[in-house]
Write a structure and sequence with these properties.
With 359 residues, the protein is mainly alpha-helical. It is built from 13 helices and nine strands. The strands form four sheets. A three-stranded antiparallel beta sheet has the order 3-4-5. A two-stranded antiparallel ribbon has the order 1-2. The protein has a two-stranded antiparallel ribbon with strand order 6-7. Helix 7 runs antiparallel to helix 8, helix 9 packs parallel to helix 11 and helix 11 packs parallel to helix 13.
Length: 359
């Protein structure tokens, strides 16, 4: 049996490791911080030549998780530095051409306002307006993945739906429901209950091709949106997603990995929203969601590599992490954030009195 609060301790160790390796000022400017996208950090990393907009949004989210786990003025100050760093490095404002990126930053900024009192109302308004404008009837509905593209996918629509549901006014709640309904109508695999990635459309709006890949990212954000909406029909959908993940995406209870780069975040995203479902879903599958989070976190921890600055996580949580040599995904900030997210998800359940069931 795991001793009390050990999961919080593991999350704290991951936090310190990521911050010590990756955090850097933006171009030496005081009051700023961003995560270098790879470690060991080379000169392009020190200068933030490569930005990783949505990785930074998840770094901000992880720091907010840590602040809830162990509140401190230093973490609250880091939240402010990260928000300023994102705005400075993005150069052109708060948004970019990718609707999924924009939605993730909106979610993190909304949390920063509600959890540490750092309000950026103009930024949130700009982000929400961009997402509202991304909906069209092409392919039956949904928000585009990218401006001026032909692709609509769950990775963009899921976080947008979560944000609209959390903003909470009547029109935005309607948008959140419309998004989830479109996902369910267009992108559910009838055999497994999992969500496909997305679909391409012709200029006339008809569907050209469906990308029938199963990503843990897609399941996580769809689950999160259903939990936020909260009515009985959406709770039933959430329960179906949990069961489908357990039966089809978890080998011996551990998620399959999606490599480095953007894929390094996918498992952590699913763990985050499984934890929310475990806490908020009034269905038997809530306990199943909690067990998945604990299994993921335990496997991740068991397979960590020990380096000078703390634990190092791999992209596949069922395999031992390797040294962060050039070309290996262990170098990527995304992979380390995905691991940190999973440990924070387990710590969240721990401090809410949830424990793994015997298995």
């Amino acid at each position: 049996m795991t001793t009390p609060k050990i999961r919080a301790a593991r999350a704290g160790v991951a936090e310190r490791a990521v911050e010590s390796r990756h955090l850097r000022r933006v171009w030496g400017l005081p009051g700023t911080a961003l995560g270098a996208v790879a470690w060991p950090v080379d000169w392009p990393g020190r200068l933030h030549v490569r930005f990783g907009y949505w990785w930074q949004a998840h770094l901000l989210d992880c720091v907010l998780d840590a602040q809830l786990r162990a509140p401190s003025p230093a973490r609250a100050a880091l939240v402010r530095r990260l928000v300023r760093g994102i705005r400075v490095r993005n150069l052109v404002g708060w948004v970019n051409d990718y609707y999924d990126d924009v939605a993730w930053l909106g979610l993190a900024l909304l949390r920063a306002e509600r959890e540490v009192g750092l309000a950026r109302p103009k930024a949130l308004a700009t982000i929400a307006d961009r997402l509202r404008g991304g909906w069209t009837d092409h392919g039956g509905g949904g928000i585009w993945w990218k401006r001026h593209d032909d692709f609509k996918n769950v990775p963009a629509n899921g976080p947008a739906a979560i944000l609209f549901a959390r903003l909470g006014d009547r029109a935005d709640l309607g948008r959140a429901r419309s998004i989830v309904d479109w996902i369910e109508d267009a992108l559910v695999d009838g055999e497994t209950g999992l969500l496909w990635d997305g679909l391409h459309v012709h200029p006339d709006g008809t569907v050209r091709e469906i990308e029938k890949n199963f990503y843990t990212y897609c399941q996580g954000v769809a689950l999160g949106a259903c939990v936020e909406l909260g009515s009985a029909a959406y709770r039933d959908k959430a329960a179906r997603i949990i069961t489908a993940v357990d039966e089809h995406l978890a080998a011996d209870g551990v998620l399959r990995g999606h490599g480095g780069g953007d894929g390094g975040l996918f498992g952590g995203i699913l763990a985050r929203y499984l934890a929310q479902a475990a806490l908020r879903l009034d269905r038997p599958e809530a306990a199943r969601a909690a067990d998945l989070v604990f299994r993921f976190a335990d496997a991740l921890w068991a397979n960590r590599a020990a380096v000078v600055s703390g634990p190092l996580f791999g992209p596949d949580w069922s395999e031992p992490a390797k040294e962060p040599r050039p070309g290996r995904p262990e170098r990527d900030l995304s992979v380390q954030l995905g691991g940190w997210m999973a440990l924070e998800a387990a710590a969240l359940l721990e401090r809410n009195g949830i424990t793994p069931t015997e298995r």
